[in-house]
Amino acid sequence: IGGLFLICLYSFCVFLVVSMFLNTLTPKFYVALTGTSSLISGLILIFEWWYFRKYGTSFIEQVSVSHLRPLLGGVDSSSPSNSNASNGEADSSRQSVSECKVWRNPLNLFRGAEYNRYTWVTGREPLTYYDMNLSAQDHQTFFTCDSDHLRPADAIMQKAWRERNPQARISAAHEALELEDCATAYILLAEEEATTIMEAERLFKQALKAGEGCYRRSQQLQHHGTQYEAQHRRDTNVLVYIKRRLAMCSRKLGRTREAVKMMRDLMKEFPLLSMFNIHENLLESLLELQNYADVQAVLAKYDDISLPKSATICYTAALLKARAVSDKFSPEAASRRGLSTAEMNAVEAIHRAVEFNPHVPKYLLEMKSLILPPEHILKRGDSEAIAYAFFHLQHWKRVEGALNLLHCTWEGTVFHEVSVYPKKELPFFILFTAGLCSFTAMLALLTHQFPELMGVFAKAFLSTLFAPLNFIMEKVESILPSSLWHQLTRI
């Protein structure tokens, strides 16, 4: 009890000192205080806005997530993505992936061999900082692990994936290759330094040789501990990525049948890695071969209610239904005699596709101009429509009457409102600092204009703030005998 009394006494003394200090302050002090607070919060706001415009994320949020959360015992946001790659957790992988809104574009172009061509010709960047920042996060998630510091080349590449400067990343990859054959270093050079698809394919073949060796070694050691399991998961991601990009190189170089075989083998070897959406690459290649029976077989497997939908799945299903009737379809004849069963199925398939993503028809019908597809897409958004139409418009044109049927039916579809990528809401800390800056600036202005009145308000506010402490002290004084309280004050 004596300790409690001492604490109360100490708090009361502190309160008296603070009250005496505040009573001696002049209005000029409040003006200086609020003005300085407004200036500091304004500088923070400007920096946050600049950082958000350049990198697509909040600096304060990034620092808190990257550095403060681990210190406070938080869970790293990349851990769900790492768990998705585990072959033994297919169900949890499917569930966590289906909840994602922004996905990596399965058909994304090569930065060095394709995206950079646009930059060379126009002098403009084809990708947003937000898109490239998401790619950097993907690379760190799939191509690194906690044990990278044990291998010098992997340690260099772990830093390389975090670099924002492309030349710094490329230099780091060359530095890693000087130490040993590093699969991820070859991947970076194939993606960003290679200026042609053939050169990228050559580098990916070198990456495949190095990646297969690492995969075999980690496969033998994966059950020896969590560290080896993480290495094997990383090596699996690297190997799947390399084989997939090699298949895409074959597709771009005109070796479509070879690309189809590589994709089928990859899906057979790693059947649980559905998060990579390799089946969408396979569908596009099969459509190029006009192998519609195989396209239907792939759709029957992946057009499942338990799997996340995509524009590729929905619109490819609509294209196959439209192909059966589009060559003889006539709006005038259909209005006179009514729709046949096959035509009704085609129209319903188009309606389902348009309901999933209503942005696609305007690109397929060339009512909106196409641009280079982004590296990430928002499901049911404009970016997914761009990515789909960029690669699949030729397949719709190849089916006689398919675009005519789409044009006649899509506008009647009732669809929901969807978001447009890459539109991004302002981070909380920008709004918070803007409000703080405005509030403190208003206080500074009011204090300068009405010093006496604001002084009264400040004292009233502080009195209200310390009212609970005053109440406690009054109760203590009423309970304790006056002689005991006198002795405690003397102590």
From TrEMBL:
Entry keywords, A to Z: Membrane, Transmembrane, Transmembrane helix
Record-linked InterPro entries: ST7 (IPR007311)
Subcellular location: Membrane
GO CC annotations, alphabetized: membrane
Main location: membrane
One Pfam family here: ST7
Membrane topology note: Multi-pass membrane protein
TM annotation in the entry: 5-23, 29-52, 426-447
Family note: Belongs to the ST7 family.
Protein's name according to its UniProt entry: Suppression of tumorigenicity 7
Organism (species): Astatotilapia calliptera (Eastern happy)
Lineage: Eukaryota, Metazoa, Chordata, Craniata, Vertebrata
